[in-house]
Amino acid sequence: MKLHLSKPTTNLISAVIAITGSKSETNRLLLLQALFANIKLKNLSNSDDAEVMKKGLMVSNGEVDIHHAGTAMRFLTSYFAASDGKEVVLTGSARMKERPIKILVDALNSLGAHISYLENQGFPPLKISGRKLTASEVELPANISSQYISSLMLIAPSLENGLTIKLLGKITSVPYIEMTLGLLNQIGVATNFKENTIHIQPLTNAVDATIVVESDWSAASYFYSLVAMAEKGSAITLTSYKKDSLQGDSALVEIYKNFGVSTEFAAHAIILKKVQNQLMDQLNLDLANAPDIAQTIAVTCFGLGLGCHLTGLHTLPIKETDRLAAMKTELEKVGASVAIGPDNLSLAKGGQVIGGATIDTYNDHRMAMAFAPLCLKTNLSINDAGVVSKSYPDFWEDLKKVGLVIKHEGEN
Ligand SMILES: O=C(O)C1=C[C@@H](OP(=O)(O)O)[C@@H](O)[C@H](O)C1
Ligand SMILES: C=C(OP(=O)(O)O)C(=O)O
Predict the structure, then answer these.
(1) Measuring from atom 6 of ligand 2, which residue has the nearest CA?
(2) Which among 83, 111, 117, 269 is placed 20 to 30 Å from 11, CA to CA?
């Protein structure tokens, strides 16, 4: 599906949008609910990634296909490995078969799991013969993906003696580890995370509580970008958010101040307002703690004519696509001048926006969503726009609520 995007007919934008629960929190809680059935959940994510997670958790024997969902792939690997008697083949999309999983498989096998590779060593698909894991100490490199660590943490309370996890090297995407700890604490698990060691105690009965998932902050980033590029006085209200978020991407509140966007916390909502013009002409930012908003921020900077130097991006090449390479190619299509390194992206300031470009999305929801706000500056088209359903199926409908003019190819 190719979509043509152009700006609203009015200069000031204003809208109220309800976004569903965080996909990261949802996929953790779905796994915890499979282990502790009394947990009740509200405001779950309606994303494809949450759907494949739900479906996967119901399988005991046979193939589980999690498509593009990194969290489902990593979290289900531990879940099945520790589920005595379950025999599954865990597979995914062609891209998923290129996303490394050896660090997690090695860690689980060292705990007594039986996981083997069916195609390429170190990559999905995996054959998993579930069994009771009895060991209680494990170590693994922490600099490639925090999802391996969260995956082990999520099954830890169901192990007889809990789990001590020693993290080797520089720890990446730390807020996602803290999110896992926070959710474990909410269901009654005792945890401790100091320096490079995480202790997780076993749990017999989870707290009898209803957990309301906070809406997705990564999804909110696209509205921050829209407001940043909109006329002064524009405002968008998003529900349901709170100040004490478990999601690292809530760093948007501080980051977008640089672009003149204020965030007001109301009851269960945030109100984003363009209150002044951007405060600088060059943004330097380390995004090792918030890798999923790098694409959004780069496009915002470009749309506003600012330069940026974004660092801490070492995990981007192994996400839905090589996001650094994809960003360089697509930003240059719209007139930007971009340099990338193994863990960074630099955008030269003052680039002139070229109109009428067609953005390729590389099976990456965030490529489509990050570029969409740029239509406030120029008309553009997005190829394979349905890719957004990985995390945000209602994205295009919600953009229409903001007044953006969105047409299918061939539509008048
Ligand atoms: O644990 C999670 O829910 C996630 C962790 C991050 O991955 P890495 O730890 O691989 O950077 C993030 O990019 C991903 O979208 C979701
Ligand atoms: C990287 C992402 O997801 P995952 O790793 O779970 O596929 C993402 O949503 O940006």
Answers:
(1) 70
(2) 269
Atom of ligand 2 nearest to the CA of 24: 6
Task: Round the CA-based radius of gyration of the chain to a whole number and report it.
Answer: 21
Catalytic residue of the set 49, 292, 322, 360: 292
- Counting from 1 in the atom list of ligand 1, the atom nearest the Cα of 74 is 1
Backbone angles phi, psi at 188, to 5 degrees: 105, 10
**Residue 284: burial class (beta carbons within 10 Å; 0-12, 13-18, 19+):** exposed
The CATH code belonging to domain 23-212 is 3.65.10.10
pLDDT digits (tens, 9 = 90+) for 370-405: 999 999 999 999 999 999 999 999 999 999 999 999
Ligand 1 close to Cβ of residue 312 (< 6 A)? no
What are 67-95's pLDDT values in tens digits? 999 999 999 999 999 999 999 999 999 99
pTM: 0.98
CATH class, domain 3-21+214-407, is alpha beta
Percent of the chain with pLDDT over 90: 97
Q: Residue positions in the annotated binding site?
A: 23-24, 28, 70, 99, 145-147, 173, 292, 319, 323, 366, 390
74 C-beta closer than 6 A to ligand 2: no
Q: What is the dihedral of CA 285, 289, 293, 295, to 10 degrees?
A: 60
Active-site residue 106, yes or no?
no
* ipTM of the complex model: 0.99
User: What is the average per-residue pLDDT within 357-365?
Assistant: 98
Residue 351 banded pLDDT, cuts 50, 70, 90 = confident
Q: What is the pLDDT of residue 411?
A: 82
Range(s) for CATH 3.65.10.10 in the chain? 3-21+214-407, 23-212
How far is C-alpha 176 from the chain's CA centre?
10
Please answer whether residues 57 and 64 qualify as being in contact, where contact means their C-beta atoms are separated by less than 8 angstroms. Answer: no
Residue 218 CA to ligand 1 center (angstroms) comes to 11
**Mean per-residue pLDDT for 192-205?**
97
Which atom of ligand 2 sits closest to the CA of residue 390? 9
